[in-house]
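Customer escalation, tier 2.

The customer says the design service returned an amino acid string that "doesn't look like it belongs to this structure." They asked us to rerun it and document both sides in this ticket. The original structure tokens are below, unchanged.
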């Protein structure tokens, strides 16, 4: 399996998405949004295609401005109260361990309370830098989350590798100037526009050294 040249590069940091990349929260997310949709008279079809987008942006698409704050509070409540069945995805634990002593971060479309709840429920050992949707003015697909993660790590975003599972997350990474590695965990391979695409993180290994971080085929 090739990585389309990523293996020839040295990165200053690795920036991970969370849901669908490190943690499988699909069932919990589906349950929460399905209930929210029913409560707001929306169909299942209307709720599709929003992977990787902050909840506030999804709510804004469907509710008038006067109802959006309440709508966001409600989906946050539903998601925080349902973290059952979360699983760490293959290779995620090993990937985080490999770069534990090197610059790395999670940049997620979750809010901070929800991100912490899902990390705790999954048992994932998260990096010290955690960027959430409530910390940036514009969430994915805007570049803000990845730019802020790079800033907090003190690195140039163009020397960062982003690991993502969603097309809009990859769009955010590219807009930030980062290299991209996509995992086929929630989206069909042909829909993932990245520098390299793998089934999941078990297909790669990260090597951190004095010069920086490299990614190799496992």
């Amino acid at each position: 399996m090739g990585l389309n040249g990523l293996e020839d590069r040295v990165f200053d940091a690795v920036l991970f998405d969370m849901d669908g990349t490190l943690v499988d929260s699909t069932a919990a997310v589906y349950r929460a949004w399905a209930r929210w949709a029913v409560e707001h008279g929306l169909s299942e079809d209307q709720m599709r295609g929003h992977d990787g987008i902050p909840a506030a942006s999804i709510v804004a698409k469907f509710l008038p401005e006067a109802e959006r704050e309440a709508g966001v509070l409600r989906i946050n409540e539903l998601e925080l109260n349902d973290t059952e069945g979360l699983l760490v995805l293959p290779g995620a634990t090993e990937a985080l361990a490999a770069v534990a002593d090197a610059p790395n971060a999670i940049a997620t479309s979750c809010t901070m309370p929800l991100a912490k709840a899902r990390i705790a429920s999954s048992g994932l050992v998260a990096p010290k830098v955690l960027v959430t949707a409530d910390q940036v003015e514009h969430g994915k697909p805007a570049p803000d989350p990845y730019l802020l993660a790079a800033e907090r790590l003190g690195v140039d975003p163009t020397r960062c590798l982003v690991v993502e599972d969603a097309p809009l997350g990859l769009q955010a990474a590219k807009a930030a100037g980062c290299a991209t590695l996509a995992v086929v965990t929630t989206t069909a391979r042909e829909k993932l526009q990245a520098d390299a695409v793998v089934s999941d993180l078990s297909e790669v290994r990260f090597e951190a050294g004095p010069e920086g971080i490299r990614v190799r085929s496992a």
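Tier 2 assessment: The sequence is consistent with the input. The beta strands are 13-16, 23-24, 87-88, 104-107, 129-131, 160-164, 179-183, 196-198, 204-209, 212-217. The longest strand covers residues 204-209. Sent an explanation to the customer and offered a walkthrough call.
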